[in-house]
Amino acid sequence: MDEDIAAHYTETQVSPSGQHLVSEKRKSSSRLSSLMCCSEEGKKLTYGLILVFSIALSWVGAQQFSQSAVLSDNFSAPYFTVWFSTCWMVLCFPAYSVLLVFTETRGRYWSTLNDAKRIFSDRPLPVWQLLCKVFGFTFLWVATNYCYVYSLSYIASTDASAIISSNVAIVYIMSLLLLKERFYILRILATALSVAGVVLFAYADGYGSDTNLIGVLLALLSAFGSAGYKVLFKRAIWQGSLGQVCLFLSILGILNAVIMWIVFIILYFTGVESFAAADIPWDYLCGSSTLSLLFNFLVNFGVAYTYPLFISIAMMLGIPINALVDFLVRGILFSPTRLIAALLIIMSFVFTMCPDSFNYPIHRLFGCFRIPRCDVEEPHQDDTDDEKTTTATDYTAGTHQEEKCEMQQGAGEKMQHRF
Fold this sequence. Notes:
Helices cover 72% and strands 0% of the residues. Helix 2 (16-70) runs antiparallel to helix 18 (401-411) and helix 8 packs across helix 10. The radius of gyration is 25 Å and the shape is globular. The protein is an all-alpha fold. It contains 18 helices and no strands.
């Protein structure tokens, strides 16, 4: 109260020329904050566009190398391919530590590394609890990637990449059931389109093609596993910062190297996977592992430093790029049926990306307010405070940069850049 009176008294004593100077300073400060905000958005846009193509190319390259590996002569070992590639995830946290050297001051370097230890809660867990939590994700990671790499033995990379892209719609359905996500009719439509696209892929070669059907089912299992991984990770992760995710992936790689090799030994001696040491295509395996490591690091880097929507765009670009590589390298033509199936899944992707506000007029038209958690207008902040909205792997989430800019303009503080 005393501060308000003092401020009012000060304003009444300022001369007209002084008031004019104060007004000009406020305008210039607001203008400077706006320019700084636009500069930050420009940087994020530039980095995002570079990341889009880098992520798409690394994803496509990893798939193509994996397919070349499992199709190599005398080498039928999709599990060994996945296990070898996952071991490379150990390098995620060391790479993040090197990145911090260039992006953080010396004083904040160690505090940022310590913050990365809080993966699942606001305080570091005991080592055995941390390892137990990460091991569950390790098993799901390996199983999901095994299904995907195994599917490449039966179908083209383009088909597999299109099918696994349907996991965005599957993530929404799982979030609707498990995370009490709000109901959006366009995302329900996206799910229906993705299902139609997968069915078309399954019967693109006719109803008598068992080989194609097996490949599609394996890729679909991989899509469900990927969706389950994302939903469970969203529930388990605390903040999902880049450092926490990189440490998580490094621990996952260590557990994979130390424990999951036992599965490979069982598969090898039972004859499920058989090959000689001389037949191992190290060039394809190392190429796939390097690009897979780059892909995972860039995805989490993009979520932390740019707009997460760019990650979704990069995943969509992977489908046509894969089709181009399959045609140029392997001579595989994209049939009209497969083209329609891919377009349906891409449309599903686009509907999933639509802002929530696009759903409200449709909800009002069809009276969807009778459905639980179905909004006909923007929900109040109080209604969404209890929902967990941050995740390191939810690539469909938006970034509200305008709200950040308004806060910075009101405070008149200097924006701190990460680069």
